[in-house]
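Take a careful look at the protein record below. Let me know whether the structure tokens fit the sequence:
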Amino acid sequence: MCGIAGALAPVAEERLVQSINNAQSHRGPDADCVWSDGIATLGHRRLAIIDLSEAGRQPMANDAGALWITFNGEIYNFQSLRAELESVGYRFRTRTDTEVILHAYDRWGTDCVKRLRGMFAFGLWDQPRKRLMLARDRVGKKPLFYSEAGGKFLFASELQGLLADRDVPRVMNAEAVDAYLSWGYVPAPLTGFKDIYKLPPAHWMTVELRDEGFLTFEQQYWRLDYTPKQTLSETEACEALREKLTEATRLRMISDVPLGAFLSGGIDSSVVVGVMAKLSDRPVKTFSIGFPEAAFDETVHARRIAEKWNTEHHEFIVEPNALEILPKLVRHYGEPYADSSAVPTFYVAQLTRQHVTVALNGDGGDESFAGYERYWAGRIAERLQAVPGSRFAAQTLSAWLPDSIDPKNRLRSAKRFLAVASQSLAERYGRWVGYFNAADKAQMYESGFRREHGADWLEKLFAESSGLDPVDAAMAVDVQSYLPYDLLVKVDITSMANSLEARSPFLDHEVMEFAARLPVALKLRGRNAKYLVKKAFADLLPPENVNRRKMGFGVPVGTWFRGPLKDLLCDALLASDSRTRELLRADVVERLVTQHVSGQADHAFKLWNLLMLELWRREFSV
């Protein structure tokens, strides 16, 4: 796990790439190196995990010195790939997975990415072809940004790395900000800056320097397939899942440095910890985060798992004053990002790094095994729409039900469900996961700031999933949106800000491919989410953890905005010099703030979205 950087230009850019390296030093505190041949310049900040010797330093070359790579991530099948490559004559000088990628590229070219099992982003310079190859893993665990500015093509692991180059303009991307206001994140290829882009997950890209500029080519190499469905009995499916997830976990426990696990007390992280405990000959180190507010606190459930497996357990309670780290988070994300659970995730990563260098987690279980309540709710909505008169009945009942400022209130959830139950699958999904819809934005935008992105992106994703069961369709969209651009961004940034490597067994692509082709009934049985996971690993899970309602990793920002964070909110959004006033109507923003802090309504997530946008614009002067 590292920070990577590079430049392609008519002259060597060693000083510039060193500046990018410096901006990403937290991603790799163990070594710092820059290499150049006068055209390509590669940089690397190393967090040493496998082969801690000097032989593992990067940028790394193959034996002939013709191929050079800077690589971020872990290739979990590197040992089997190495054996395959050795069988056809390749020789290895190190024990690293980095050298395996070099030889795999030499053997299979750009198709080498199809053989890699793991998380990765890399830049590989092919000297004989004068061609740079960039690539990202299938689900987008590891980030990769690029820009063309001042006659140079640049890439880096983080936005703040590229912004070290003064030739890269700090110009706000209005289309990206519009998307952010809808979803709370900026989807690829957009970033918050007009001239910087993300390479999408499961894509590779080649770049060649020509007299007239840069010639680029981009291609997608993987997509999750939900058909045809497998014909397995329930018992066979349980056995297969247990075997695949155990193997995925075992591979992610390979490390030359201490490792542990994030433990939320939810199904997925509990299963991972249980599997680790069975595979390990010593107590697993586990780390949990909690809140003083009982409705948001899961530490009791995490503690139950820790006691079951006799783990070496550590906890941290997040208080509102912990938000002193907001400026640091804004700087690390580099663009507006509205998932408030980044705050506790940062602190659990900070706590974890005090004890280990690698931490496994349960990310990805919900998106593969139907863990979110919106999957169940979407199925019920589809069934309601088949009943004559249901549209009018749902809207009437929604209007009649009382509202609540308590985000955990069940009547509030029912009211929210009924309000959109008659809408299309894409519209419902957008209302359930989004922040500001088209009507909100039409009312809120200043005349000079127009809608440029919006819901059409999401509608296209659902159109690509047409013909699937609504549950599979929603999961397919999550895998292409919420998972890579919200969840995985959150974990990568918060873990790497603390020089910690995060590994996710549920995001092993073989586990995901197996889950995608399971019949929906094995993933969602009535309201019983993650049915197969619970059944396959029943012996690892206390009944109290299995039978409770899913909490999610929520943060009590609504309460905080009415108390200790009220001044921060008002100073940021209502001040005369607020940057949001250039984009959004001051009266609409003031109404949202006033209604929330007075207890008339709950606008916590919308206000957090606006607060992060304001702090980002201030931090980066855009």
